[in-house]
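Bench notes, afternoon.
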Amino acid sequence: MHKQERQMLKEQDEDVRRELDDDFESVRALLFADEKDEYRDVVNASEKDQMYDAYVRDMGFEKRARPQDRLKTEEEQAREELARLERAERHRVRRMEGVPSDSEPDSDSDTEMTSYKTDKKRRPEADDLGDDFGADAATMSEDEINVPTEGVNFGAGLATGTSSGEDEDSDDEGSDDDEDSSDENDEGSDLSGSEEDESADDGKAPASFVAKVASDAAKAAKNAAKAPSSAALELPFTFTAPADYDAWVELVTPYTLEQQLTIIKRLRTQYHIRLSPQNKEHLSALAVILVDHLAVLAEQNPPVSQAVLDDIVKHIGELAPVDTERFGEHCRHLIVAMQRRVQTSVRQQSTDLRASDVALARLFVSVFSASDRYHAIITPMIVAIGQFLSQHTFATMRDVAMGLVLAATVHEAQRLSRRLVPEVLNFVFSVLAASVCDSSDASDWNDTGLFPVSQRQREAAAILRIGVSEKCTQAAPISWSWLVASERATADAKYAVLRAALMLSRRLVDCYFSLPAFIECFEPLQKLLQKIESRLPRFKLQQAPEAVSLLLQDLQSHLSEQLDQARASRAPLKMQYHRPLAIASVAPKFESSYSLDVHYDPDRERNETTKLRRQVARERRSTVRELRRDTQFLAGERLRAQKEKDKVYADKMKKAWSVLESDQSEMKKMDKQRIKERKVKL
C-alpha cells in the first residue's frame, strides 16, 4: 500500500514536470531567439502592434515623460533668494574687513591645492616677474580694461540720468542682471514719470528733494576730481527697508539709476510678503516711495532714460496690490494736488501744472482699472484734465505738448469703455485749427462748426500757425524734454505739434466710430481737414514734411469712410410700434348653450386668472377637509390609546388593592387569635 502511494505521487510529479516542459518550449523561443527571429517577428506583427511599439519607444525618449523634481512654491523661492542675498552680503562684508570669506577653504593644504589648480589662470604679479613687469592686455579681464576714469559725483545718477555699469562679480549678481537697462533716450515716446506733491496741505511727498538734487548737481562740477567713482562703490546685497522718502533718498543717493533698480529688486526679494506678515508694511511703503521717486525723476532735465522709468513703473504696478488702501489714498492726495494746480493755472493764467503731473496721470491709467464707470482715482483725474484742456490758455509750446500728452492719456483711459470726453475733442480740433486759422478772425475758427474758444485762447494759439516762409524737412515726434524745458516755436516744433494732433485725431476716430453721435462729433473735423488741405498749399505744402502730408491724406480718407458708414447705418426716428387694437363692440352677446361652469369673459388673461383663483379655492377646501379628517382620526387614536392606558392602570390598581385587603384580613385574624390566647391564659 505504501509503495502504491509513492508510485502515484511520482506519476503526478512527472505529469506536472511534463506540462512545465511543454510550456517552456513556447518561452524558449523568446529567450534564445536571435536578431533574425526578432526581425521576423516584428515583420509578421500587425500594423496596430507596430504603431504601439513605436509610441512606446518615442515616450522613452520624451523629456516630459521623465520624472522631475517638485516645483518650488513662491515662498520657497523667496526664501532661497533671500538666503542667497544674505550669504553674498556676508561675503562682501568679510572681504571689506580683510577677513577670508566663509566660502573659502580653511586649511593651508586646501589653499595650496586651490592655488595649484588655478595657478595657470592667475594673472602674473610683480613678485613673479622683474621690475620691468607690465600687465599684458590679453591677460586682463574686460572689467579691468574698461575701468572708467571719469569720476561720478555724489548723486550723479539722479541729477543727470546717466550711469555706469556695476563692478560686481557675475556670481553675486545672479538674477539681477535682467534689471539693468540701457541709457538710450527714446525721444518719440510719451512715457510718463511723476513728481511728488509739494503742497503743505498734502504732506505725502517731500518737496525738499528737488532742491537737494539741484544742489547736488551744482556740487558735481566742483567736486568731480574728489568724488568717488560709481564703479568703485560696491553695491550691498541687503538693505534696511526705508520707512519714508527721506530714508530712500539717503539710501540711493550714492548710486546710479541702474544700481537703484537693483536696490529695488533686492528690497522686494529681502522683504517678500510670503516671508513675514510684517513685510506687507515695508512693501506698501516702498510702493508709495517709488511713486514719489518717479515723480522726481520725471522733472529731471535732461530727461531720465525711458528704460529706467519703465522698470520703476513695472515695480510700482507689481507693488500696488500689496496694500491697495494705502496706495490708493496716497494717489488721491496727488490727484487733489494736481487739481489745485490746474485751478491755479486757470485762474492766474499761468502754467502751474508740472511734467510730474502728466507722468502721474499716465502711471495711474496703467496701474488702475481705467474702464470703470466711476473710479476713486481715475474719475477725478479725468475731470481735472478736462478742466485743464478746456479752460487753460496754451501760450507756450510746453503747454501745448502737455495738453497733447494729457489728451492721449484720456484716450488710453477710455479706449475700452469708449466713453466720450468732449474736452479732448475740442482741444485737439483747436490745435489743428490753430495751424492754419487766423487768430484775429473769430469767424475763421467758427465756420467749421468747432466749439467756440475765447479771444485770449485764440491769440495765445497764434504760436502754432505755420507761416509761409517756414520750412521743415522732418517732423520729429514730441519728446519728454518738451515738458521739462521750454521749446521755441520753430517750424520743426509746429509741424511736430501738427503731426501729433493728426495722429491723435486718427485714434479718436477709431475709438468713437460706434457712437450714435459720431457724425455730429466729427463732421467739424472733416471740414477742418479740408480747410487745412486747401490752405497749406498757399503756405507751400511742398515745404512740409512728407510724413505730415501722407498722414493728413490718410486721415481724410479714413474719416470720410467712417462718416459714410455712420450715415448709411443711421435710420430716421419713428413712432414706437404697437399691436393694432380691436374696435370695442357694445352689442349684447347671447349664448344659447350658456353654462355656469364655463367662463365667458372675453379677456383671456382675466379668464385664466379667474380659473386659477377658483382652482386655488377648490384645492384649499379639499385640503381643509383632508386636514380635518386627519385631525379627527388622530384624536380618535389618541383617545383609544389613552383608554387602553387607563384600563391597564385600573387593573394594576385592583390587583394591588386585592393584595392589600388580603394582607389586612390576615393581620386582623392574627390579632384576634392573639387576643383569644391571652384571655385563655388569664
